[in-house]
Amino acid sequence: MTKTLKNLCCLMNPFLECRCFSCSPSTPSSPLPWISPLQYLNPSSPKPDPPPTEVTTTTVLEPRKKSKFISHASAINLIKRETDPQSALEIFNSVAKQKGFSHNNATYATILHKLAQSKKFQAVDAVLHQMTYETCKFHEGLFINLMKHFSKFSLHQRVVEMFDAILPIVREKPSLKAISTCLNLLVESNQVDLTRKFLLNSKRSLNLEPNTCIFNILVKHHCKNGDIDSAFEVVEEMKKSPVSCPNLITYSTLISGLCGSGRLKEAIELFEEMVSKDQILPDALTYNVLINGFCHGGKVDRALKIMEFMKKNGCNPNVFNYSALMNGFCKDGRLKEAKEVFDEMKSLGLKLDTVGYTTLINFYCRAGRVDEAMELLKDMRENKCRADTVTFNVILGGLCREGRFEEALGMLERLPYEGFYLNKASYRIVLNSLCREGELQKATQLVGLMLGRGFLPHFATSNELLIHLCEAGRVGDAVMALLGLLELGFKPQPDSWALLVELVCRERRLLPAFELLDDLVIQEM
Length: 525
What we know:
The chain is mainly alpha-helical and about 525 residues long. The protein has helices at about 1-10, 15-20, 40, 70-80, 85-95, 105-115, 120-130, 140-150, 155-165, 165-170, 175-190, 190-205, 210-225, 230-240, 250-260, 265-275, 285-295, 300-310, 320-330, 335-345, 355-365, 370-380, 390-400, 405-415, 425-435, 440-450, 460-470, 475-485, 495-505, 510-525. It is globular, with a radius of gyration of 39 Å.
């Protein structure tokens, strides 16, 4: 009977059949509970779960897969792709636990760049401390990169600290490139005291013999601070040095300093000395320094002669030279000459940038020639030069000064749908003009557009609009505008509140008056 039941059980449950449980005394009995075959004949009984398996000593275990070794190149790629700096640091630490793996200069440089970029300076210090115990060879480029990061975040003392860390960690004296980088970053940030200390320490501890690059940085430092005479003294020292001599950068920096100080005659004399005595040919950048200098000094005709001299001597003007000259004519009110410069530049295949176009558009708008400014805007689109917020604000101001409010409002409505960004100034330019000209209906509509796009009008303009609406008897518009302004945190002046509540009460609208007073109390709380 037992055998029959067993066979029946196996036929009705293949899962049990495949296990081949044995009843022989030589095989250890299974601990699984016995299941009656009768329950399989009862359709109302729920199907039992499969019996749990038990691992025995005879089970063959699959061999464990060996984890893939992460190389230095793979580790670098993983760290670079990781957007979270903390996760990147965890990757850096985890790969170091691999047998036979040691970090090298490249992996340290990658993680330090990632951490410094994310302003995780405490983690940067921890990694730098760890580097002091490493035996691998480090390169100073790692520290030059850190200097740039610290300078970017205005941590100028840390810039010097990174320079000082080169010797103990790289175990070599800093190169002239490292010295030049550190010095230039301090000069660019106008860190006069730090620059002086750095130079003194470098000369004393490193036996610094400045090269041309370092001398040029010092010249720039003095010119930037308006100390042109000290800059010339540096150049004299430069000429005495056996490893340096003035070059085009030196002269261009000096000429720029002279132009910035209004010493235009000396700038031209130095330019002539550079060409005739030192046989150094100027490039487009040097010419641009002179053109800019004379344009800012109100001597645009002299700047034009410099441009002509430039062409005759085989140096083709670039877009920056033309832009500087065009800007000079604009500031002098000579729009005809400015347009001629613009047309000449276009004929040569040079494309003006957004700043150049905006400069010309601004002066056309200021001169009341808005239609010509609009033509330039059209020209920008045809030349695939994208106008920015400043460009459109200039156009909006020009349209409003001409009283062309419909066009200005149309631009405000249309431009965001065309993919152009407008800021709160864009809307305020038009709203201020509408209030000033008494265009209350258009102003109210514009306030609604602004509030719908999340822009709050200027405080004074909002109060002025509310008062004008009240004085014009448009209480309903004033109330609606005020309620929309309140939602964005606007607090009207007491005079505006008093006038509005008085007019509402005068029209026997007591409920709106009480609601306004409630809003006033809430705002004050």
